[in-house]
Amino acid sequence: MGWARWQSFLTDLGEGIQSLFVSPGGTCPFCGRQIEGEAGERSSWAAWLSEWVCPDCLERFPFVVPPLCQQCGRPLRQTSGTHCQDCLRFRRFFSCCRALGVYEGALREWIHLLKYGGRLDFGQALGRMMADMVQRDRQLAEADCVLAIPASADRVTARGYDQAWILAQECAWQTRLPVANEVVARVGSAAPQSLLPTHARRRNAFGQFAVAQPGRIAGRTVLLVDDIFTTGATLSEVSRVLLRAGARRVVAVVAAIGVQRGD
């Protein structure tokens, strides 16, 4: 599917399910339950979410809460440090990453349905939540454009869509940032990261991406969008090639992040 058709598809998708986000009196985008209430001053993110996500789904959502790693955004069990073990051990090429929640429970279920169950409306809902996080975070809010981590052509063909693009499109739509589509391309045919152990993922990601249109990101702060942060190897590799191509800075937002035992 060419980008023009893909963009048109996402626009139609957004218009078709826009009623899911109308509050008060709308329906929860995750369970379809009717939401009652009166719109008022939204003094906090939780208050804003409560206008269009039902209390039960909010209760099930495993939000990331402080303390968290100042670089990758992973929750820290140790309260004395500012960075997780991986960010201390390995060089990261992105300046910071933030996640909506931990990859477990309801969030894991919803992402799984987005990726494998055709629930594109879940991507729309998560993308809107990610956009609100971007606008509230000082470092993420400096972004000039939005770019999804590109999936392999085989996966896009098998699913019929790229879940990261759905998240990125909604994030861009809500933040009014341009989408830097087709700037980064996959150029390798490495094994899927999900099939590899942690220690092999960094090596596997190296050399798998190239910047096809460097002029579109030169001197700009790029916001990368993806569904899951596991080791951060893919995110860091895309950040590396963007910086080499002239990007000023790379920041990222993901729907979910894994938690490691040692942090």
Description:
The protein is an alpha/beta fold and 263 residues long. The protein has a single domain (63-257), classed as Rossmann fold (3-Layer(aba) Sandwich), CATH 3.40.50.2020. The protein is 38% helix and 13% strand. It has 10 helices and 6 strands. The protein has helices at residues 3-17, 45-50, 55-60, 85-89, 105-116, 120-136, 153-159, 163-175, 198-205, 233-244, and strands at residues 96-102, 145-148, 184-186, 209-211, 221-229, 249-257. The strands form 2 sheets. A 4-stranded parallel beta sheet has the order 1-6-5-2. The protein has a two-stranded antiparallel sheet with strand order 3-4. α10 links the parallel β5 (221-229) and β6 (249-257). The longest helix is centred in the middle third of the chain and has 17 residues, at 120-136. The protein is globular. Residues 1-25 and 38-43 have low confidence and may be disordered.
What is this structure, in a nutshell?
The protein has 263 residues and is an alpha/beta fold. The chain is built from 10 helices and 6 strands, in the order H-H-H-H-E-H-H-E-H-H-E-H-E-E-H-E. The model is unreliable at 1-25 and 38-43 (pLDDT under 50).
